Amino acid sequence: MSLENEKRELLNWIEDNRSRFIGMSDQIWENPEILWEEFFASGLQADFLEKDGFTVTRDVAGMNTAFIAEWGEGKPIIGLIGEYDALPGLSQKKQSSKEAVKEGGHGHGCGHNMLGTASVGAAVAVKKWLQDSGASGRVRYYGCPAEEGGGGKVFMARDGLFDDLDCALTYHPASTNITSKGSTVAIVSSHFRFKGVAAHAGGTPHLGRSALDAVELMNVAANYLREHVLDGTRIQYIITDGGQAANIVPETAAVEYILRADKTDYLKDVAERLRNIAKGAALMTDTKFEEEVQIAYSGKMANHTLGELLFENMEFIGAIEFTEDEIAYAQEINDSFPGENKDYIQAAIDYYKPSAELKEMVLAHKDKPLIGVNFPAIDEGMTLKGATDVGDLSLVTPTGEVYTACFPTGAPGHSWANVATGGMSIGHKGMMHAAKAMALTALDLYSDPKYIQAVRADFDKSMNGKKYECPIPDDQQPPRLEPKS
User: Which is it for strands 137-144 and 177-179: parallel, antiparallel or unpaired?
Assistant: First the structure.
């Protein structure tokens, strides 16, 4: 049987089993859990894969909501990457107007209920093909917690859990079907805590050593630093402890900083300069300080070869077909958001500046609330200002990422609008499109060694002899929470 026919058979199998994966996604949607608390979602997926014949290893890299599931023997080894954490405060019903299921509750505003499930679906489909074809290779699913501000993949990368992969495939819900050839910024968030000596601010201020003075001097110097960093670098901070009362010289004070830079190596330089500023502030005020790194993600490095393969397979599958009811539902959501979100397509063109041919293709869908066609990568050579722990994965092994239409075109990221479509048919269709694209791309990689060779050559060229360096301290450990009763 030709590979094309094998792909069509696998697509039929995925379609026949879509209810299994939609059911999983909806269960995770209905039980949203924020970072480090994903006990239901991780348990649901791990149990599912174990029952399907995968060997499951739980509690990996010190994270009790992380796991790895593997099936097969030999090489190549292809990883499918899943996430399942929700966002706080985004509870929302499955309807086109804003209304919480539970006031103050969590919600899947980034669509991670679909993200993880699509990769599970692809992993199970690939396992079936490997089993039926007798081809050599292993498929491995990574259940990754805490992408939203915790960095589960960073801890996995530090522990070497991606080291033997030939490549990895992942997906993210979006408002269009498109692959990525761009990068993301590197990010580090640190808490600087200063300790001085308390004293009566009126009677004996000379005996005090103000920790707040140190924080304010640090912030002043950091603002001067802004002039002397490369364009695209971000320096953001908030004071988290400013003392207890104005008539007491503050014994403690603290400030949290977030730094972003286009290049991971350059971010390290900026972080060291900020650290020296903290040292100087402590020296000037005769105080002491300590730094606690909260999170640190490396910048993502796209693999163009994988991006092209994913696009070719999306084209093989065809466009997503949305119903009139789904289009009307999405339009109602779009109408809830004024301003630039109403002109999403033009804003994307202005930002990405695509070629004339691609611009014309995109403009043909300018006024549509849902877009089901497939687009080639529009972000080649660009560094997007968002950050993700997929960056650390991409510096360890070649990584391809596909985006699919799960949200209306005008829905802002991390909003109730995304929650409203992530648990119904619009999100389901986008999720299954991604599962199919990743599964078919894996078939290409298993079937012909030339693809793995090309993917690796692309990766080696981009790395240019560099080796991955984990951005978090060696002694930093992830939180270990317990399930809520």
Answer: unpaired
Report d(CA 31, CA 106) in Å as an integer. 9
CA distance 2 to 7: 9
**Strand, helix or coil at 205?**
helix
CATH number of 186-296: 3.30.70.360
Neighbours of 204 (CB within 10 A): 10
Distance CA 282, CA 192 (A): 11
Q: Which CATH number fits domain 3-183+299-463: 3.40.630.10, 3.20.20.70, 3.40.50.300, 3.40.190.150?
A: 3.40.630.10
Identity (one letter) of the amino acid at 392?
D
Cα gap 12→103, rounded to integer Å: 41
User: Does pTM surpass 0.85?
Assistant: yes
* Nearest-angstrom CA–CA distance, 423 and 374: 22
The Cβ of residue 5 has, within 10 Å, a number of other Cβ atoms equal to: 9
Structure-block tokens of residue 302: 């796209």
- Residue 141 · residue 115 · CB < 8 Å: no
- Alpha carbon of 314 to those of 222, 273, 364, 374: distances in Å? 46, 45, 19, 7
Task: Please report which residue ranges of 31-145 form alpha helices under DSSP H.
Answer: 39-51, 112-133
Query: Is the Cα dihedral 274, 277, 283, 286 positive or negative?
Result: negative
- Under 8 Å between Cβ of 320 and 372: yes
Mean pLDDT in order along the chain per 10 residues (485 residues) = 94 98 98 98 98 98 98 98 98 97 97 98 98 96 96 98 98 95 95 98 96 98 97 96 96 98 95 98 98 96 96 98 98 84 71 80 86 93 90 98 96 95 98 98 97 98 95 94 84
CATH 3.40.630.10 domain range(s) in the chain: 3-183+299-463
Cα–Cα distance measured from residue 14 to residue 8, given in angstroms and rounded to the nearest whole number? 10
